[in-house]
Structure formats: C-alpha cells, structure tokens
Task: inverse folding
C-alpha cells in the first residue's frame, strides 16, 4: 500500500519485519522440484520481490527465476521530498520515520552505495539528492546482481502522493484552485511530466545494455493509472481529473487488453516473455532499433502529443490521438423520455387543438351574424320609433317577470379607506321603495350616497356592513330559502354603471352583438337576437353609429364615440335582455339635453306600458325630464330628505313650477341648508313624520310577503318554467360553457387582445437581434451566455406581451357581472388560457429559431427538436406564472394600484429568476438555506435545460492539442457548472410541472376570490325589528303578479286551509290569513296536473330534463331554435 517496501524490513518487530515474515513462509514451501518461479510485486512489493531473489535461489537452485516488477520506482520530479518533517499531518512522515528510525529498509534495498550513505547520514544533504536515489537506473543498473537477473519492468501507475508538489493533495493548499478545471489541469500536468521523466529514465537505464531486462512502460496519461491513496483530496476533485480525459483510478482484468504499445498489449508481452523464459526477442522487444535493450515504450509521453502519420504502430508505441472526454449521462430512461416528450407535446397540442376548435366556431359565428344583420337592417330600414317601442313593449309584457325592491331603516358603513382606519357611514336609516311600472329617480349632491343606495337595492354591494332590511318583491333577502331569489334577482336586473366599459377597437355593432349572445338565452334564435340589437339601437338613437369604433376618447384609438354616445351604448347593452328592473347610475351624464330627454322618455314608456322597474340617479334634470319621473327621492348626507312624486316635491320645497328648472332649484335650496345641520335635520324630520314618509312605509308594508316553504317551492317552479320558455340553459344562466367560450374568444380577437401578429414580429426581431450579437459565437462561454439571454429575454418578453390580455378581459368580466350579466368563469379562464398557450407558443418559436441558428448552437436534429419544445414550454410557463400573479392581485381589472402591484410582483419574479437561473450564481455557490429557491424558478430549469441539451456530446472545432480539445468539450463545460446531474428531459418535466401548477393555482385563486367568495357584506338586525314582522300568509302585489297562475293560487290556498284549518281566508291576491289553529302541521301541496311534476328541493337538478320535456309542447315555436 505504500511506495516503499518498509513492510519488508529485516527487523524483528513490526512494522519493519516483513522480510523476515515472508522468508519464514517461503521456508515452509518445498520448491526443490520447481523448474520455473515467477516472483512479482507492485510498487514497494516490486522492490521486495527483488530483495527476495537470493532467498528464492537458495530454495530452488535448479529453477528458472523470473521477476516482474511494476511501478517500483519514482522519477526525478523536482522537490519531490520537500516536506516539513516536523508536521505530523503530512504524508511524508512515513519517509521521515524510515529516515530517522530505522536502517532496515536501507539495508536490504538495492540502492547505489552513495545513496545509502546520503540517506543514513545527517540531514545535511538536499532533498533532491535523496530523490535521485530512487531513479530506475539507481535501483537496477547499479547492481551487478540485478543486471544478471531476468526482470520484466512495467510502469502502469502514477502516484497521487507526488501531487503534493502541486498542492493538490493537501487540503490546506488545494483551495488555491478556483474550480475543478484548474485542479484537473494540474493533475494532467503532473501525469505528463511523470511520463516524460519516466521515459527518459528508462531509456537511460536500458542504454547501459541490460539485455536481461524487459521494459514495458506506459508513459502517456491515457495508458496510466492514478493510484488512489488515503491522502488524496476529496472525491469530487479527484473525479474531476476525468473531465479532461480518461485517467484510470482502478484497473479491471481487461484494462491491459486496451493498452497497446508497438502493436502489443501488456498481457500478451508478459505471457510471451514468461513462456520464453525471459527471452526479450521472443517477447517482441529484442535486437536493434527502437526496441533495443528490451524497451517497449510509449512514443507519445503526453496528452498533448498528436498522432504522427509517418510512424507506424507496429514499430513504436503511440498514445491514442483522441482523448476520450467526460460525457454527460442521461438520467432519464428511454421510456420516461418518451413519456416526458409526450407530456410536453400533449400540453401544446391540447392547447392548439382546443383553440382551433373554438376558432372555427368563432369564424362561423361571425359569418352567421353578419349575414343576418344585413338582412334585418334592410327589412327594418323604414321602421318608425313608435313601431319599435310597441314591439319592445310587447316583448316585455310577454314575459312573466316583476321585480320590486325596497329597504327599510338601512344604514351602510363602508370599509376603512386606509389600513387600520375606521369604517365610515354613507347611508343612515334609509327607507325607500322602487316599484314595478315606475321611473324612480334619486337626486342629491355629489357624495350623498346615491350610487351606494343603488348598489344596496340591486344587491351588488359586496363589502362593508349594513344594518336594516332589504326586500325582493316583499321577501326579506336575508332568509335562507330566499337564496334562489337573490340569484334570480342578479340575473334579471340590468345595472348601467356610471363608468362606461367598452373595448375601444370594437365597433358598436360588434360590442352589442357579443353582449347579446352572452346575455340572451342560448336557445333563442340568432335572428331574434340580432333583431333585438336593432330594436334597442333604434330606440336609443344609436343606429347610425353601429359601424363606428367605440374608441377611448382619443387616448389610444383615434376617433370613436363621443361621451354621450358611449353612455347610450352602455344603456343599450343593458337593455338588450329587457330586464324586469333597470338600474341606471347617471344615465344622462354626457348627453345633450335632447338626447337625455329622449332617453328618459323611452324609460318612462317602458315603465308604464311594460311594467318595468326603472331606478336611476340624476343630478340636475331639466324640467321636462323632471316631470317624467313617477317618484323622486332626494338624498343629502346619506339620509332621505324627500321621497314622493315630482309634484309633491315642488310643494314640499316650495318651488315655482313656471319658468324654473325645478331640479336645480331643489338642489340649490338643499345646498343652502346643507351646512346647517339643525335646518337639515328639521327638513328630514318634516318628511319622516309627515304624510310622505308614512306613504313610503305603507308601500313597503303592502309589498311584504310571507315567504313560506310552499310559496318558495311554487315560485321556484314558476321561475324555472319561465327560464325554459325563454330558452335559457338554466334558470340562473342564459348560455352554456361552450357558447360563452366562443363568444369571449371572438370578442377578444376582434378587440385586439389576440394581436399575435404584432407580438410575433416583435419576438422575431428580438431573436434576430440576439442572433446578430452571437453571430460569430464559437465558444462555450458565448453559448452559455446565449442560453442565459434566451431564457431571461423570453421571461421579459412574455411579461411585456401579456399587457392587457388579462387586465381588460377581467375588467369586462367584473363589469358584466356587476351589471347582472352572468358570464361563466370557467369559460372566461378557458378562453384566457387557450389564448395564452397559442400566442406564447408562436412568440417563443419566433424568438428561438433565429437565435438558435445564428448563435451556432448544437445542430443535431434531436437537440434542435428538444430545444424547440423547451423554449415553447418556457414561454407558456412564463405567461402562466404572470397570469397567476395578475389573477391574485388584480381585483377588477380597471387599473390602479392593483395593476401596479401585479406588475411589481411580476418584475420581482423576473429579477429573482434572472439571479437564480444558474448562470450568475451556480447552484452549489448559493447559501444552503436558499438552495431550494432555484428549483422553484422556471428560469433555472430553462437555462439548465438549454445548457445540457446544447452541450451534451458537443465539441467546437479544435485545432490545438489533444488534451486541450478534450478538456473543452461541451460535456466537460456542463460538468464545470456542476449541472451534470441534470438532463434535458428532467428540465422539460419540471417546466411542465410548474406550468400545470401555475394553471391549477390560477383556477383555485380565481374561484376563491371571485366565485366562491361572493359577498362579504356584513348584515345586522335583519328581521329582528318589529316592523319587519310579516303577517302569516300575506302576499304582496309584486309577488302575486309573479305567481299569477290559477293552479299555483289554488295550491297555495289549499295548503293554507289544510295548514291552518277553518277560518276566514281572503280571496284576494293579498292572502291575509287568520291565526292558524294547527300550527304544528306542515303545509302540503295539492298534486300537480299530469305531466307537470314539480321538482322537489333535493331532486331539482335531477328533474331538470324532465321539466324541460314537459314544457316543450307549451313553448311557442317562435321562441325555440
């Protein structure tokens, strides 16, 4: 195990008693009849074998004695023994022990007498003098006895102990190397110097004419073996030697079959030499010429030797011209490789396939509505406004929908404006009733709470805290069994918000068409939907602007609608579904007086003739508009100052009706007393304590309904039947998932949200620019920088391309949801995800293709194919991550701080991804507590994937030495980055995993924040006040109109009689019942007519198709497709 034969010493006690032990063993063996004895040893054992030759001769005097000595010497390497013997931690304390404690080794070693003298003398000789004693010719050629012995000398090993001279095996010194590349370079330098010195030493020894000696020496690095010891440096650095070529650390039985010198390997040469009893000529190394004196040496002593074509392999030893470099291993099995590539291609194919299916339907949809629109426009060109109003009124009257809304003692407290602040009150004990068939206007100065009051009546306010009661057709909305009524309300009330939300690049016709197909029942004929658009546009006087872009006031789109026209388009959008209640927040804002008057006239006629409930806020209406209101409510500082008819308002505020603007005069009077709290309180007290306040309370009381389980069940049947009759797919949703996805995708493409042509050109330009920068790239460093730039640029470009793709779409989705339009959130996300997959795929390819070929990356077709997959998956994953952030941070999509926060977070991800992508900071250089971060970064997997994919089995043209070419392979370069544990398939799989995770988190986050979350409005005191108690069996006017069917009336009467027994029961719609005699008996419904099974509560969903079939024959063909 050690380099010297100190275990073979002749002392009587360990550790220098090996010679005596072996001699004693040999004495026990009968060798007298032996004819041939072969004694061999390696390193110190080789010297020991020579030490025992005389003993063997005495044991077998008639035998032919052959000796095989392998690697039993050291070459003359400068400063070989320069060791501080006072340091017990260094390996050469062994030498120090030999030098100062024993002469046993010296006594039986075949050394030059001068060397023995120098060795045993006081340490006044130089270390170099000691080393010279270990030359091969010092061992063999200075011994007349050994000159006569037949010895086969072979050299196969390089000793790591001698790496001390480079500071490679000493932990305290080896840290001077920055990386394993430097370490490996020094190890190879040692191996080459060892080989060169060894060759010169052997040539010097054989030149003395020792014909009995056969020399088989591997002096080039590829033929040698590095001898591992207990003192070599850590495993990682030892193995790093192989990054520049094969340096063996251990030998297998077949190793020497591959090492050929002069056309003969060591095993063959040794067998021939032994079989010929040490005849060098028979072993192929005798005579004159290069092999004179039994030499068989490598002609090439260095890794840097190139093959000499003028020298044949038969007459000299030649090291291989090609040094086998380190190669990256693919960790993923072939089966898993197929699965991973299939997964990536499957994700891309599913996205593209679904997109094309939707896009085909989009194209068909556009052609269909364009054709129908041309026909309807031509047919109705001569239609008058009066005829259109009549048609709309008939449509509204044909539908069994009545909505009245009211609140009592309503107070509302808004959330704190700043974190940690207090909530602030907006409404204070408001009681108001909005009946069907009336135009109810709410007036008041700015900031008095008008919009908040509309939100509370429409049941759309989702934050804050309210105290009081809210009624839908006289039913307290807080009741558990009224949940379906609240949902029905949200789907049958249209809310025109104060802020218009229109896509600038859509024409008015395109906007109304897509809105109609989202709002109107799915089974309604397409021609009926298009006709509805024309009717609404004509009645609101926007039919001449249908082909004009909506615009944005000249911010990004030149031209477009004026502010007033945009207001009318917003109103038309909500009137498309002809709701039972229409709520408008400042509908006349931005309109001139003539158009404002025309709009209010239309609303007035619809309210009176079609029983529509119109509730609107307005600032200072002209007198003609003022007189069109059926009821007027005036708010001031969150409290009601007046509620009654416009005529009563003039009397209440003592306003002249001739030659005055009544609305202005009322607000002027309020302004004068607004700062005087006593006067304002006095006016409010006059209203509340007078006839007007009592009248409002009476209206609310008259509408109240005892919403028992019987009525709830029957009402649900009525609403369900009405939904089926209209052609809705369910009683809460007008259209299904597939139709909604198609409409959303069509609208997105038309509005420019899928401007993939522009983004692809931008990506292509960026790829060409990057390619031009790396056009002369022919280095690993340049290719690595290109890989980094590809991933970093892709992350940045995708964040830029995302733009308003989600922001505006989410803004419109929230706007439509608040306005009463139910748009499937699943369809919304499907449209978003499909668009992202297709657009990012195109952009990723456009950027990657020119960069790859101009940057001279790996041209192998398989590498190129995997690179394209990698870049496309990276592009899709980046946009999925950005979308996930925007879903989490952007609440409404209308801009502001939430959009800014999303942008900041996305930029943060880009920055962190660029830092931890494995290029700037390598994985092992990251602090241990942060080493998990890169594994969560898509940029890390993208960079490592490109690096490994490009550099595996890749070599740039190399015209320098063999060693340098071998050390500059792509595999070795990846090894230096310490990413050789990864392969491209692992990276693709990790990216696919991140892609799926981002989409799943996006879906969950969207569902929690915008679907499941619902309203967080806190309600207090609902149903606890004395005035909220409803008389048993009572049914208000609006509820009676809603369930106005003889069968339902009879079922309710029978149920009440059966429940409460004999008693006087009103025959009017207002069922004012007496006190029940049997309160413990639950109400029962009479059996329904044959073929019209009422869906019970638990089985409603299961009976859905049955009800649809039973209603089919009663639905007019004109209402069905």
Result:
């Amino acid at each position: 195990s050690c380099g010297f034969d100190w275990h073979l010493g002749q002392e009587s006690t360990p550790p220098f008693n090996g010679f005596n032990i072996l001699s004693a063993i040999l004495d026990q063996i009968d060798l007298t009849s032996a004819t041939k004895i072969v004694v061999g040893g390696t390193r110190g054992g080789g010297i020991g074998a020579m030490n025992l030759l005389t003993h063997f001769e005495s044991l077998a005097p008639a035998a032919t004695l052959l000796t095989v000595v392998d690697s039993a010497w050291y070459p003359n390497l400068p400063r070989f023994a320069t060791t501080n013997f006072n340091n017990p931690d260094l390996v050469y304390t062994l030498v120090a022990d030999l030098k100062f404690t024993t002469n046993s080794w010296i006594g039986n070693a075949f050394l030059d007498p001068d060397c023995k003298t120098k060795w045993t003398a006081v340490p006044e000789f130089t270390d170099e003098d000691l080393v010279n004693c270990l030359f091969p010719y010092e061992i063999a050629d200075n011994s007349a006895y050994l000159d006569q012995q037949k010895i086969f000398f072979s050299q196969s090993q390089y000793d790591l102990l001698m790496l001390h001279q480079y500071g490679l095996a000493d932990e305290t010194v080896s840290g001077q190397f920055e990386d394993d590349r430097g370490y490996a370079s020094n190890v190879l330098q040692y191996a080459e110097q060892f080989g060169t010195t060894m060759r010169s030493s052997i040539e010097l020894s054989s030149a003395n004419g020792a014909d009995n000696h056969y020399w088989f020496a591997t002096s080039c690095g590829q033929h040698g073996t590095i001898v591992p010891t207990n003192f070599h440096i850590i495993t990682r650095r030892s193995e790093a030697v192989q990054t520049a070529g094969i340096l063996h650390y251990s030998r297998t039985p077949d190793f020497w079959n591959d090492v050929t010198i002069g056309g003969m390997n060591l095993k063959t040469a040794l067998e021939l030499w032994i079989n010929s009893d040490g005849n060098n000529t028979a072993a192929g190394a005798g005579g004159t010429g290069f092999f004179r004196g039994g030499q068989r040496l490598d002609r090439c002593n260095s890794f840097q030797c190139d093959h000499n074509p003028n020298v044949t392999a038969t007459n000299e030893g030649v090291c291989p011209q090609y040094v086998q470099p380190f190669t990256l291993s693919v960790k993923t099995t072939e089966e898993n490789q197929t699965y991973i590539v299939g997964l990536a291609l499957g994700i891309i194919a599913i996205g593209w396939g679904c997109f094309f299916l939707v896009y085909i339907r989009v194209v068909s949809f556009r052609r269909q509505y364009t054709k129908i629109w041309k026909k309807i426009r031509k047919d109705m060109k001569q239609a008058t406004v009066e005829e259109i109003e009549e048609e709309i009124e008939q449509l509204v009257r044909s539908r069994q929908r009545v909505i009245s809304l009211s609140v009592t003692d309503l107070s509302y407290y808004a959330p704190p404006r700043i974190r940690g602040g207090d909530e602030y009150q907006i409404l204070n004990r408001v009681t108001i009733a909005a009946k069907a068939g009336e135009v109810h206007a709410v007036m008041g100065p700015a900031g008095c709470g008008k919009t908040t009051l509309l939100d509370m009546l429409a049941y759309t306010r989702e934050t804050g805290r309210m105290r009081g009661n809210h009624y839908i057709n006289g039913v307290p909305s807080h009741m558990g069994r009224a949940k379906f009524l609240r949902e029905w309300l949200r789907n049958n009330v249209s809310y025109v918000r104060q802020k218009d939300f229109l896509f600038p690049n859509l024409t008015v016709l395109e906007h109304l068409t897509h809105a109609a197909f989202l709002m109107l029942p799915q089974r309604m004929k397409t021609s009926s939907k298009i006709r509805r658009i024309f009717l609404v546009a004509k009645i609101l006087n926007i039919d001449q602007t249908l082909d004009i872009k909506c615009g944005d006031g000249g911010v990004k789109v030149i031209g477009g609608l004026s502010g007033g026209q945009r207001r009318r388009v917003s109103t038309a959008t909500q009137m498309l579904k002809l709701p039972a209640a229409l709520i408008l927040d400042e509908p006349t804002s931005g309109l001139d007086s003539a158009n404002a008057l025309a709009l209010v006239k239309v609303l007035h006629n619809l309210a009176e003739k079609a029983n529509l409930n119109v509730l609107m806020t307005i600032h200072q209406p002209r007198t003609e508009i003022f007189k069109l209101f059926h009821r007027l409510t005036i708010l001031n500082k969150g409290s009601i100052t007046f509620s009654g008819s416009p005529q009563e308002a003039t009397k209440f505020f003592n306003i002249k009706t001739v030659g005055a603007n009544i609305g202005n005069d009322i607000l002027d009077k309020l302004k004068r007393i607004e700062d005087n709290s006593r006067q304002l309180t006095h006016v409010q007290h006059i209203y509340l304590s007078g006839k007007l306040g009592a009248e409002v309370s009476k209206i609310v009381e008259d509408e109240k309904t005892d919403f028992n389980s019987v009525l709830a069940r029957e009402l649900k049947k009525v609403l369900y039947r009405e939904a089926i009759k209209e052609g809705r797919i369910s009683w809460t949703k007008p259209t299904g998932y597939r139709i909604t996805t198609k409409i959303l995708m069509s609208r997105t493409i038309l509005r420019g949200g899928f401007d993939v042509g522009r983004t692809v050109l931008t990506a292509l330009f960026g790829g060409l620019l990057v390619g031009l920068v790396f056009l002369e790239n022919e280095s690993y460093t340049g290719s690595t920088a290109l890989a980094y730039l590809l991933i970093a640029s892709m992350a940045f470009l995708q964040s830029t391309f995302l733009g308003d793709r989600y922001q505006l779409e989410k803004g419109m989705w929230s706007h439509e949801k608040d306005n009463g339009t139910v748009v499937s959130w699943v369809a919304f996300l499907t449209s978003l995800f499909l668009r992202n997959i297709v657009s990012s795929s195109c952009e990723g390819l456009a950027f990657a293709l020119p960069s790859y070929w101009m940057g001279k990356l790996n041209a192998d077709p398989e590498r190129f194919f995997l690179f394209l997959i990698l870049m496309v998956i990276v592009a899709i994953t980046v946009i999925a991550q950005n979308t996930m952030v925007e879903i989490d941070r952007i609440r409404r999509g209308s801009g502001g701080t939430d959009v800014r926060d999303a942008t900041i977070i996305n930029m943060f991800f880009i920055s962190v991804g660029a830092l931890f992508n494995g290029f700037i900071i390598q994985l092992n250089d990251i602090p241990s507590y942060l080493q998990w971060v890169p594994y969560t970064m898509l940029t890390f997997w993208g960079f490592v994937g490109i690096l490994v994919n490009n550099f595996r089995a890749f070599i740039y043209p190399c015209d320098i030495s063999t060693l340098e070419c071998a050390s500059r392979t792509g595999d070795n370069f990846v090894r230096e980055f310490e990413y050789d544990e990864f392969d491209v398939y692992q990276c693709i799989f990790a990216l696919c995993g991140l892609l799926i995770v981002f989409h799943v988190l996006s879906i969950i986050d969207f569902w929690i924040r915008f679907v499941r979350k619902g309203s967080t409005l806190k309600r207090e005191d609902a149903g606890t006040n004395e005035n909220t108690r409803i008389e048993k069996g009572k049914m208000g006017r609006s509820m009676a109109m809603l369930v106005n069917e003889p069968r339902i009336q009879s079922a309710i009467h029978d149920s009440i009689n059966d429940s409460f027994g004999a008693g006087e029961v009103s025959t009017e719609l207002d069922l004012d019942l007496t006190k029940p005699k049997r309160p413990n008996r639950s109400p029962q419904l009479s059996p329904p007519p044959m073929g019209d099974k009422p869906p019970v509560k638990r089985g409603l969903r299961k009976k859905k198709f049955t009800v649809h079939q039973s209603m089919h024959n009663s639905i007019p063909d004109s209402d069905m497709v």
Summary: The two ends are 94 Å apart (CA to CA). The chain is about 50% helix and 10% strand.
